[in-house]
Amino acid sequence: MTQGPVPSWRKPVGMLAILALIALWVVLVASLSGVVGQWHALLQLAFYLVTGIVWLWLLPMRRMLRWMETGSWR
Predict the structure, then answer these.
(1) Is the pTM of this model over 0.85?
(2) pLDDT digits (tens, 9 = 90+) for 26-73
(3) Alpha-carbon gap, residue 38 to 66, rounded angstroms
(4) What DSSP assignment string belongs to 29-51?
């Protein structure tokens, strides 16, 4: 019997890194909840929308996923 490709170690490491980044971001944003909770509901909505979008731009998810698949950051 022939064996399939050997599983890459990058996928579990990448998944753990992504989960750690998500946890860090959640703690950072949640630490501001005391202040943000006192704002008007529309300002809160805008804050959480902006922080969600910033999350996508600042943290290199596309690069991380590409690295998990190919081993290259580019």
Answers:
(1) no
(2) 898 889 989 999 999 999 999 989 988 887 776 667 788 888 888 877
(3) 40
(4) HHTTHHHHTTS-HHHHHHHHHHH
CB 68 within 8 A of CB 14: yes
Single-letter amino acid code for the residue at 3 = Q
Nearest to 15 by CA among 68, 73, 53, 54: 68
* Residue keyed to tokens 């202040």: 35
Place of tokens 């050997």: 6
Q: Can you give the length of the chain in residues?
A: 74
Here the tokens at position 67 are 């690295």
Residue 60 near residue 17, CB atoms below 8 Å: no
